[in-house]
Amino acid sequence: MANSKKPGGLREMLESMYSVIALLFILVACVELCDAAAAVDVYRLIQYDMSGSPFGSRFAALNHHAASLHFPPGVDLSRTVLIIPLRELNITFVREYINQKNPLGGLLVLLPEVLSFKTGGNKQVHEKEKMKILLAELERLLVHSNIPYPVYFAFENDEIDTVLADIKKNDLMGQPATATTGGYKFVIPTAEPKKVASPTMTNIQGWLSGLKTDGDANQLPTIAIVASYDTFGAAPALSVGSDSNGSGIVALLEIARLFSLLYSNPKTRGRYNLLFGLTSGGPYNYNGTQKWLRSFDQRLRESIDYAICLNSIGSWDNELWIHVSKPPENAYIKQIFEGLSNVAEELDLKVGLKHKKINISNPRVAWEHEQFSRLRVTAATLSELSVTPELLESTGGLFDTRQYVNETAIVRGVKLVAESLARHIYGHQGKNIQIFADESSLAVNPAYIRSWLDVLSQTPRVAPFLSKDDPFVMALKKELAGHVDEVNVQHETLEGIFTFYDSTSARLNIYQVASVTFDLLLLLVLGSYLIVLFSFLVITTRGLDDLISLFRRPPSRKLKTA
How far apart are CA 210 and CA 218, in angstroms? Predict the structure, then answer.
């Protein structure tokens, strides 16, 4: 009877031993990442190809120890994530490090809270401007470099500030984080980026019909008001472009609202058609504008008197610039300039004229009006920018946020354009007549401008990552439809020299890890404890003989046969 119970008891003992061994393996697996310090949202540096050449951050996954700028000279950083607050960033060091192609496990740039200040004194304003200049320079460097490691941006908060303080303390003590010494490990478990296949662009067109008298067979002339709505920046998930070109979009919507009120009454409907265009592909040589214009039939194209393109009108003080491709002596250009100048003088503003001749053989398109000029349509761009921007610059970078936009500037810009258009439409050129006077039913609505500016300042709009059914695109279409007679949407594929990659944001897990020495000591202690515990349990339940029999060598098969 005792023999019949023995196999069962041995089985129970073996199962207990297997459980202990499994527990040991679990503890070993968990011993390194034993303390999660923080988890923060991070935003990856854009990855793209231009004419086949790679630019931006070429990797996304991260699993390395972290270090601050206080690392010892000559140290190998190939398996280290360098964490740099923007306040402490030395742009010369970063530029030299990238240009010399020094190895690095990854880079995390911390953006300061000052960038999100909604109000502040002169000190805050000064600090914001200082950060803006530094960030613009850093963004320009990163966007135009080929970086063979992950680069991310994150915003400062209490958790990551505490982690950074510990990292700095260890680095200053000469104990940088490694597998041997321990420290903090940054982990982003994400798949490697893939190419964005057939990125789409969506152009939204609104049409407000002018008054046509009975028996008039001639087509009414048309004035086009256009603004590009998408952005480009170092971090696509943060590229909201409040000024470039959120201010232009807001101004266009408000102008459409004002003229919809005028055109709703046959007595005040002008003898001009108004064409509103919200275009995509602006940062990429205004590729969307080009496709939109080429979709026009010849009759519509020839009916356009002129086009006004709105670009970055949200952070100017007292002067705007009219950029044109045709010579200033051109009769139509004179008419546009004089119309805006007369209204500007009444509003105590200044308007300057900048002429830049286009080269049709050059694919570079710096201003949206140049796409009109290439098709021999008179057009101009109204902007606070006096200098022609370089490719992929002034297109809604990291510093182009809500806090840098002046609502009053947009209100004045809307009043300037709307009054100038109205005087041209109704034949009131040179007359001091305010059609959109303050306190009237046709006054510019600051609350409307503010509400849409808030929406745009929370919506990243980098074209390759906006689908044709994106909620933001649908919201723009719906809003414009409320102000015009007819809305059409055009979907196109972004073509040309650019290729984009996904994986624009992620979750960074920060772990506080122990050193290898501590790991080995902990394993030794745990192992000894488990062996003693197991031996004690066997002795108390089965006896010493059963414990010894577990470690006794079993008899050989030959001996059993004999």
Answer: 12
What is the pLDDT confidence band of residue 432, given thresholds at 50, 70 and 90?
Answer: confident
CB 463 within 8 A of CB 280: yes
Helix (H) or strand (E) segment spanning residue 306:
strand 304-311
* Residues 381-404, mean pLDDT to the nearest whole number: 93
Q: What's the pLDDT at 30?
A: 46
Q: Which residues pair with 205 in a beta bridge?
A: 277, 488
Those residues with Cβ within 8 angstroms of residue 368's Cβ, 6 or more apart along the chain or in another chain: 226, 228, 279, 282, 286, 289, 309, 311, 379, 381
Name the token pair of 340.
């805006």
**H-helix segments, 175-330:** 246-263, 287-294, 298-303
Structural contact between residues 456 and 246, judged by C-beta atoms closer than 8 angstroms? yes
Rg (CA), the chain: 33
SS3 sequence of 101-156: CCCCCEEEEEECHHHHCCCCCHHHHHHHHHHHHHHHHHHHHHHCCEECCCEEEEEC
Quick one: pLDDT band at residue 126, thresholds 50, 70, 90? low
Distances (CA, A) of 266 to 210, 221, 261, 418: 9, 17, 11, 19
Q: Which two three-digit tokens encode residue 383?
A: 């902007």
Q: What backbone phi and psi angles, to 5 degrees, belong to 133? A: -65, -45
**What does DSSP say about strands 200-208 and 183-188: parallel, antiparallel, or unpaired?**
unpaired
Nearest CA to 378 out of 319, 424, 316 is that of 424
Whole-angstrom distance, CA of residue 367 vs CA of residue 226 = 12
Query: Which amino acid, 75?
Result: V
Distance of alpha carbon 428 from alpha carbon 434, whole angstroms: 10
Q: For residue range 300-352, list pLDDT tens digits in order.
A: 999 999 999 999 999 999 899 999 999 999 999 999 999 999 999 999 999 99
73 pLDDT higher than 90? no
Q: Is 64 left (phi over 0), alpha (psi -120 to 50) or beta?
A: beta
Q: Give the integer Cα–Cα distance in Å for 510 and 164.
A: 11
The mean of the pLDDT values for the chain is: 87
Q: Residue 482: CB partners within 8 Å, gap ≥ 6? A: 260
**What pLDDT is recorded for position 116?**
55
Q: What is the pTM of this model?
A: 0.85
| C-alpha span between 140 and 159 (Å, rounded) | 29
Q: Three-state SS for 453?
A: helix
What distance in Å separates the CA atoms of residue 426 and residue 187, rounded to the nearest whole number?
64
Question: What's the token pair of residue 463?
Answer: 């074209």
Q: CA 342: distance to chain centroid?
A: 39
Contact predicate 424/339, CB 8 Å? yes
**How high is the pLDDT of residue 335?**
93
